[in-house]
């Protein structure tokens, strides 16, 4: 028989120890950012029907939730407010006594070492559910920037460590950077939702945040899933405008984009593992069709492999627990 010539890849897979030696990507608790929905009222802890295991909580339950995070070693949280009152200007978004501002102050008081990220958008706060304001039936860009900047400054005043604008108006990073600087918040970074697609995977979030648009859709400001170069234009513009982190959202259907943003820019890249991506896995797990831990770890690892430095995920607490258990097994 003629001698075969081939490479023995299995040499490096033969034991857990050998596999650990050559592992290229790791998932760490420090990479995880946990989203939380805060609502008005007392003693509210509502499970979001389309997101089993995710709750809207009132402020009196917030501290216990944050304690859980800290005990598990999660370092950061992104806060979404669900206000009682909505109007056409989204004025609760920039009310210094609004639900998000109070939540931020409480977290920073009770858990000063947690890094608090404020999502900066108007859609939960406007009665029409759009991310900007409306004039003559149009979602107008520049007047929306004024209100978004007011919102960011109000969140920074409440103690937010990072501002994360998710509204997709043009120039939001430049406007918010200028507003923060003028208000004395030069050290507050912007984690920009630089690349945000008009995605059907946000459906469950809109249940959780009561933020579905009452008419039309978000396609005049969020991006077309068909486009790749446009993502690079968006990312580059946000770098120029002064972003400190770049979010790519959603994550799973856009891993190619994540890699390109990582290669093209030199800022930390954040994957947003969005609500629909969470719900899909939960539904399959509830049916007994998938192993939750295995699929979640594989998916989050794929985001890191695609270039994400950080991951916003509703699975953060579970992942931290699984990482603890693995650590115990190894030790
Ligand atoms: C607000 C916002 C949305 C999400 C984060 N910030 C919804 C949207 O744009 O409709 C989605 C997050 C998720 O689906 O988990 N603009």
Automatic annotation (TrEMBL):
Q: Which key words tag this protein in UniProt? A: Heme biosynthesis, Lyase, Porphyrin biosynthesis
- Reaction catalysed by this chain? 2 5-aminolevulinate = porphobilinogen + 2 H2O + H(+)
Regions crossing the membrane: none
Annotated pathway: Porphyrin-containing compound metabolism; protoporphyrin-IX biosynthesis; coproporphyrinogen-III from 5-aminolevulinate: step 1/4
Enzyme Commission number(s) from the entry = 4.2.1.24
SUPFAM superfamilies on file: Aldolase
Q: What class of enzyme is it?
A: lyase
The protein's job, in short, is: Catalyzes an early step in the biosynthesis of tetrapyrroles. Binds two molecules of 5-aminolevulinate per subunit, each at a distinct site, and catalyzes their condensation to form porphobilinogen.
Q: Which PANTHER family match?
A: DELTA-AMINOLEVULINIC ACID DEHYDRATASE
Q: Which family does it belong to?
A: Belongs to the ALAD family.
Q: What binding partners and quaternary form does the record give?
A: Homooctamer.
What this protein is called in its record is: Delta-aminolevulinic acid dehydratase
Q: Name the species this protein comes from.
A: Aliibacillus thermotolerans
């Amino acid at each position: 028989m003629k001698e075969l010539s081939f490479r023995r890849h299995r040499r490096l897979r033969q034991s857990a120890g050998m596999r650990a030696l050559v592992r290229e990507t790791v998932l760490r608790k420090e990479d995880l950012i946990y989203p939380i929905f805060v609502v008005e009222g007392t003693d509210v802890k509502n499970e979001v029907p389309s997101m089993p295991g995710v709750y809207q909580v009132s402020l009196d339950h917030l501290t216990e939730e944050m304690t859980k995070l800290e005990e598990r070693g999660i370092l950061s949280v992104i806060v979404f407010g669900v206000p009682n009152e909505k109007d056409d200007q989204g004025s609760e978004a920039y009310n210094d006594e609004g639900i998000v501002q109070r939540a931020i102050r409480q977290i920073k008081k009770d858990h000063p070492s947690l890094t608090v990220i404020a999502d900066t958008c108007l859609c939960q706060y406007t009665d029409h559910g759009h991310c900007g304001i409306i004039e003559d039936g149009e979602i107008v860009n520049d007047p929306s920037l004024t209100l978004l900047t007011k919102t960011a400054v109000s969140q920074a005043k409440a103690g937010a460590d990072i501002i994360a604008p998710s509204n997709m108006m043009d120039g939001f990073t430049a406007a918010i950077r200028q507003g923060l600087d003028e208000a004395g918040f030069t050290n507050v970074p912007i984690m920009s939702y630089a690349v945000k697609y008009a995605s059907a995977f946000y459906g469950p979030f809109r249940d959780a945040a009561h933020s579905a648009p009452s008419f039309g859709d978000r396609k005049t400001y969020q991006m077309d899933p068909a486009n790749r170069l446009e993502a690079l234009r968006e990312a580059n513009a946000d770098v120029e405008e002064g972003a400190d982190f770049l979010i790519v959202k959603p994550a799973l259907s856009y891993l190619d984009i994540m890699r390109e943003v990582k290669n093209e820019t030199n800022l930390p890249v954040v994957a947003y593992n969005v609500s629909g991506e969470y719900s899909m896995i939960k539904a399959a797990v509830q049916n007994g069709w998938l192993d939750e831990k295995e699929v979640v770890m594989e998916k989050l690892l794929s985001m890191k492999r695609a270039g994400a430095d950080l991951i916003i995920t509703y699975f953060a607490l579970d992942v931290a627990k699984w990482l603890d258990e693995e650590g115990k097994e190894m030790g």
